Amino acid sequence: MWTVFFTAFALMLVLEGLLPFFAPTLWRDTFRRILQLSDGQIRFFGLASMLVGLVLLLLVR
Length: 61
Fold this sequence. Notes:
By secondary structure, the protein is mainly α.
């Protein structure tokens, strides 16, 4: 179980690092826009992200 968890975590880090590596200016601008969002908007995107992830997990399993 831990192997799967660490594999998924490592893959997430690789995917998260692609945009700052290949397009740092775009990443910086995107991050600046995210900072301007309200807490409610950020929470909504977090919830939506979790729900999409759960649906994908259910489809894969």
